[in-house]
Amino acid sequence: MELLCFSSSLCAPACSSSTTAVSTVAPVRAGWRVRRGGSRDRSDARRSWQTEQQQKSSVRPAVLQGYSSIIDHKPLKMHCHSCALVTSSGHLIGGGRGEEIDRAECVIRMNDAPTARGYGGDVGRRTSLRVIAHSSMQRVLRSRHELLNASQDTVFIFWGPSNYMRRDGKGLVYNNLRLMNQVLPKLKVYMISWQKMLQFDELFKRETGKDRRISNSWLSTGWFTMTIALELCDRINVYGMVAPDHCREPQPPSVPYHYYEPLGPEECAMYISHERGHRGSHHRFITEKRVFASWARTFNIHFYQPDWEPPPLAPANRTQGETVSVSIRDWQPEMEVGW
């Protein structure tokens, strides 16, 4: 059955959330940064919340707030002990990591990255969760026989700016997702609420000191996927993500930005052009990778193909830097949000 034609405006860059000011909120179970020497009351509250969450998790599956089903609007219930987060980088080609990736309890992919067409030996064949940007919907639909029809057990999480995701009949992405679920009713389709999108923005600002709206940038699907993985997974093995300083090496290997587009843009050229961009909307790929490297010092995150680990912080940085990453289980939510 043929899906209706979707608007090409979905492929246009857009900010990842509305520009409405947001109060101090942070995503549940996501790392963030605080000043050393916080108040004793706040520390006690964190410990109390941690105990409560541990008691809850022992009697029911993990409920991830901010990700709601297209059909019944219920939150996502999902937890994985081990996750393989597979990027779309050309570094994956020739690595032969497919079987290793598929051994993880959950395999996470992004946008329209394929597993067929001979790529399975390098990127694996299983997909437990696929995080998809509003701008990639057209490409996913064009590959729906590969990505959708054969993915009855896969969870799909779509993200987009709030005006695309609204449920009052004016949200372009939301309307199309409803249609897609009517055509393929067994699909497990979720979308990120606008309140959760504001949390992602606030997390980026806390970790980098930069307001993405003021800096004229928008968060990448990689940012959403890594942060979702922190909520979802006990251990995260990331495949195909380079270190933050990789593109500053004298002669970094030249690989395509997407492994399935060998004639597409070169990865480092894409990263550098976006990082330096001031006009139009850009991703801050390198800035995001610096945050991921920082998180890997605290959380159970590991990088493969290429294999690397973040260097330890110098003692001076630990004593003078004034900030530390707080465990995802030590954070006290300041508000529960949903649609």
From TrEMBL:
<dbReference type="InterPro" id="IPR001675">
    <property type="entry name" value="Glyco_trans_29"/>
</dbReference>
<dbReference type="InterPro" id="IPR038578">
    <property type="entry name" value="GT29-like_sf"/>
</dbReference>
<keyword id="KW-0328">Glycosyltransferase</keyword>
<dbReference type="GO" id="GO:0001574">
    <property type="term" value="P:ganglioside biosynthetic process"/>
</dbReference>
<keyword id="KW-1133">Transmembrane helix</keyword>
<keyword id="KW-0333">Golgi apparatus</keyword>
<dbReference type="GO" id="GO:0001665">
    <property type="term" value="F:alpha-N-acetylgalactosaminide alpha-2,6-sialyltransferase activity"/>
</dbReference>
<keyword id="KW-0812">Transmembrane</keyword>
<feature type="region of interest" description="Disordered">
    <location>
        <begin position="35"/>
        <end position="60"/>
    </location>
</feature>
<keyword id="KW-0735">Signal-anchor</keyword>
<dbReference type="GO" id="GO:0009311">
    <property type="term" value="P:oligosaccharide metabolic process"/>
</dbReference>
<dbReference type="GO" id="GO:0000139">
    <property type="term" value="C:Golgi membrane"/>
</dbReference>
<keyword id="KW-0443">Lipid metabolism</keyword>
<protein>
    <recommendedName>
        <fullName>Alpha-N-acetylgalactosaminide alpha-2,6-sialyltransferase 5</fullName>
    </recommendedName>
</protein>
<keyword id="KW-1015">Disulfide bond</keyword>
<feature type="compositionally biased region" description="Basic and acidic residues">
    <location>
        <begin position="38"/>
        <end position="49"/>
    </location>
</feature>
<keyword id="KW-0472">Membrane</keyword>
<comment type="similarity">
    <text>Belongs to the glycosyltransferase 29 family.</text>
</comment>
<dbReference type="Pfam" id="PF00777">
    <property type="entry name" value="Glyco_transf_29"/>
</dbReference>
<comment type="function">
    <text>Predominantly catalyzes the biosynthesis of ganglioside GD1alpha from GM1b in the brain, by transferring the sialyl group (N-acetyl-alpha-neuraminyl or NeuAc) from CMP-NeuAc to the GalNAc residue on the NeuAc-alpha-2,3-Gal-beta-1,3-GalNAc sequence of GM1b. GD1alpha is a critical molecule in the communication and interaction between neuronal cells and their supportive cells, particularly in brain tissues, and functions as an adhesion molecule in the process of metastasis.</text>
</comment>
<keyword id="KW-0325">Glycoprotein</keyword>
<keyword id="KW-0808">Transferase</keyword>
<keyword id="KW-0730">Sialic acid</keyword>
